[in-house]
TrEMBL record:
Organism: Geothrix rubra
Annotated TM spans: 20-38, 50-68, 106-129, 308-327
A Pfam family: TonB_C
Record membrane topology: Single-pass membrane protein
Annotated CDD domains: M56_BlaR1_MecR1_like (cd07341)
Compartment list: Membrane
Protein name: TonB C-terminal domain-containing protein
PROSITE patterns linked to this entry: TONB_CTD
Ranges for domain TonB C-terminal: 434-522
Length: 522
């Protein structure tokens, strides 16, 4: 199996996706029940409830992922001499039984791919809106610009909002958050009566006052992460429909008469039917069931009960799949002391850099479950420094064993692995010296002049910073100044020098000083 598929993070993520099927199904049912109870309430209250439900759908899997434990990827540097002691136990598991554990990494990779494609779709949509609409828009007629700014102030907007006309758009729409824009089809200035167009513009200004552009972006992100769950798409559709109702109510309240808005929506719908249409932008005025929106403007009535039949079938399927998958997972295997033969031990991984920098040492105890083929399928660090756990877990998953036996048949095996991490003595501090304070024990023969530099008649002086250990042997060298063509030769030459150990208070110390190396052509 590929090392990538053995990563603890993928196992944890795949299990999270399975749990999300039934968790978000329950959240979806709770959201449906709340919308039914609030069907006589104001649209903004139903909108808030639906948004809360979608936020809960995102939060539930996130909390589940956190609760499933550590699954960080491998990193760092482990010392040679890493020890391992195993106290294995076997537990009954039918080797012919379907092991869903092996599919969890693929499920996680599928989710990552799907979410990435959805995010790419979102980014492409934002770029398309900018290139398709904003880049080709032009200022609205002067008379409408002044009227629009008065309307924006009446709506309570403190920031300036631009009004633009577009030959591409087939319905007014609101774009932007920091620099908001209302885009109107050029034909709407001629086709709509002034009062009707003013009402439609008030609807779009209501979107901007409520921050719906940002809310819609967050909603689209939630759809990207929950693309696999039907309840998320159903609830997202409810949010978009209710959002339009909220803006309809705000526009009608501002103008004091719902008739102009109803006329404007009906005329816009007729214009859209008469011209080829692009896909609906997020906050276009003519979105949603048109007749339902017009009717509720004149005759307030309880919101229709969201259909549960299709939702219930989808939720039942998702819940059944999640329950079946989780039920197919093997039950916990108890620990015992039955020995298990080792088949393959990978090279020790590097020691974690951050732990090495902080001088963190200790022993990590890893709980490892090995399937009936001798392949580790699950690992969890139960004890040891947090900075060392992910490295120990990833290392344990790379081992291979002879299958454990129970009643003569291969069975699932659970191990307790003890992994000590030890660092060598801490390096001493480096003292800065002048070259005149350093005694040279050996100076090698001057190197040959670099051929390329010689051919190009390049000369100069290279300054090399040299760090020498307590034994007088250079540990590192770096060229600080001088022609680039001469630096590699100077560095290699400096590393060949040997020195008497530098001393402070009679004790050898690491020394750092500069060597000046002139290169001259004859």
């Amino acid at each position: 199996m590929s090392p990538i598929l053995l990563a603890p993070m993928l196992h944890r993520l795949g299990l999270t996706v399975l749990h999300a099927l039934w968790e978000d199904a329950l959240v979806g049912l709770a959201a449906w029940a709340g919308l039914v109870l609030l069907r006589r309430a104001e649209a903004r209250l139903r909108y808030r409830w639906a948004c809360l439900g979608l936020a809960a759908m995102v939060l539930a899997p996130a909390l589940t992922y956190a609760a499933l434990g550590s699954g960080e990827p491998v990193s760092g540097r482990m010392l040679s001499g890493l020890g391992l002691w195993a106290a294995p136990v076997t537990g009954g598991a039918d080797p012919t039984r379907f092991r869903f554990e092996t599919l969890l990494p693929w499920l996680a990779l599928g989710w990552l791919l799907g979410a990435a494609l959805m995010l790419l779709r979102l980014g492409g949509g934002l770029w398309w809106l900018d290139r398709r609409y904003l880049a080709q828009a032009r200022p609205a007629p002067a008379g409408w610009e002044a009227r629009f700014q008065v309307l924006a102030r009446r709506m309570g907007l403190s920031r300036r909002v631009r009004l633009l006309a577009s030959d591409r758009a087939d319905s007014p729409l609101a774009l932007g958050w920091l620099k908001p824009v209302v885009l109107v089809p050029a034909s709407a200035f001629l086709a709509l009566p002034p009062e009707a167009l003013e009402a439609v513009l008030a609807h779009e200004l209501a979107h901007l006052r409520r921050g719906d552009y940002l809310a819609n972006l967050l909603q689209t992100l939630a759809e990207a992460f929950l693309f696999f769950h039907p309840a998320a798409w159903w609830l997202s559709r409810q949010i978009r429909e209710t959002r339009e109702h909220c803006c309809d109510d705000a526009a009608a309240a501002l103008l004091g008469d719902p008739l102009p808005l109803a006329q404007g929506l009906a005329t816009l719908a007729a214009l859209r039917r008469s011209t080829p249409s692009d896909p609906d932008p997020a906050l276009a005025a003519a979105r949603g069931p048109l007749m339902q929106r017009i009717n509720r403007l004149f005759k307030p009535q309880p919101a229709p009960i969201p259909s549960l039949r299709g939702l219930a079938l989808l939720l039942a399927g998702a819940t059944l799949l999640g329950a079946t998958a989780l039920a197919s997972r093997q039950p916990p295997v108890p620990l015992s002391s039955t020995p298990l033969k080792l088949r393959f031990q990978p090279e020790p991984p590097p020691y974690p850099p951050e732990a090495k920098k902080q001088r963190i040492q200790g022993t990590v105890v890893v709980d490892l479950v090995v399937d009936d083929l001798g392949i580790p399928v699950r690992a969890h660090a139960v004890k040891g420094p947090q900075a060392l756990r992910s490295t120990a877990v990833a290392y344990a998953l790379g081992w291979r064993f002879e299958p454990g036996l129970r009643d003569g048949k291969p069975s699932t095996t659970r191990f307790r692995l003890t992994m000590p991490f030890r660092l060598g003595p801490a390096p001493g501090p480096v003292q800065d010296f002048d070259f005149r304070q350093i005694r040279v024990a050996h100076q090698p023969e001057p190197p040959a002049y670099p051929a390329e530099a010689k051919a190009r008649r390049i000369q100069g002086t290279v300054v090399v910073s040299l760090v020498v250990g307590t034994d007088g042997v250079p540990e590192s060298a770096e060229a600080l100044e001088g022609p680039d063509e001469l630096r590699p030769t100077a560095v290699a030459y400096a590393k060949g020098w040997r020195f008497e150990p530098a001393q402070v208070d009679g004790k050898p110390v690491k020394a750092r000083f500069k060597l000046t190396m002139p290169f001259r052509l004859r």
